[in-house]
Specification:
By secondary structure, the chain is of the alpha+beta class. The chain has one domain: Alpha-D-Glucose-1,6-Bisphosphate, Chain A, domain 4. Strands 1, 2, 3, 4, 5, 6, 7 and 8 form an 8-stranded antiparallel sheet that branches. A hairpin with a 3-residue loop joins strand 4 and strand 5. Helix 1 crosses helix 3.
C-alpha cells in the first residue's frame, strides 16, 4: 500500500466546497469534478456515516463498473472518510478474491480547513503502487476542476 496526498486551496467557504464536492445539492457538481477519473462518474447511495456507497461509471460497452465503499466518518464541512472494500461488475458486488484483495480496506480521506474565505482541501488516499503515478496526475486535474466549480 502506498499513501498519497494532495492539497488545493479554493476561494470559497468550507461549506460550499463540501456541498459541491459531494454533490449534496446537485449530484452534477460531484459528477463534473470526478469526470476527470471517468467521464461517466457518479455515485449511488448516501454520504451518511456507516452507509454503503457505490462509486460508479460505465465502461466502453455500457456496463456499470465501480467501487463498493463505506462512509467511515462524515463531519459536515470538515472531514469525510471512505473505505473501499469491493467492486461492482455490472450489478454484482465482488468483496473477496483476487480481484479486490490487493486494495480492499484502503482509505480515502478528505479534510477541509477554512481561513479568511479560503478553504484548503487535503486528500489523503491509500492506493497500490501501480496506480501512484496515474493517480497523482489525475488527482491534480480533479482538484483543479473542483476548485473551478466551487469558485463559481
Amino acid at each position: 500500500m502506498e499513501k498519497i496526498q494532495f492539497k488545493k486551496e479554493i476561494r470559497a467557504s468550507a461549506k460550499k466546497v463540501f456541498i459541491t464536492m459531494l454533490g449534496l445539492e446537485n449530484i452534477k457538481t460531484y459528477e463534473d469534478w470526478t469526470s476527470v477519473f471517468n467521464p461517466t462518474s457518479t455515485y449511488e447511495g448516501s454520504w451518511e456515516k456507516g452507509s454503503k456507497i457505490y462509486f460508479v461509471g460505465f465502461d466502453d460497452s455500457g456496463k456499470k463498473m465501480g467501487m463498493v465503499s463505506e462512509i467511515i466518518e462524515n463531519i459536515p464541512f470538515k472531514f469525510i472518510s471512505i473505505r473501499h472494500y469491493g467492486m461492482l461488475d455490472g450489478d454484482n458486488e465482488i468483496t473477496e478474491g483476487p480481484m479486490v484483495e490487493e486494495w480492499t480496506g484502503l482509505l480515502e480521506n478528505y479534510s477541509l480547513s477554512e481561513q479568511d474565505g479560503m478553504t484548503t482541501v487535503t486528500v489523503d488516499s491509500e492506493t497500490t503502487a501501480e496506480y501512484v503515478d496515474s493517480l497523482s496526475t489525475t488527482w491534480a486535474k480533479a482538484l483543479n476542476k473542483l476548485k473551478e466549480i466551487a469558485e463559481r
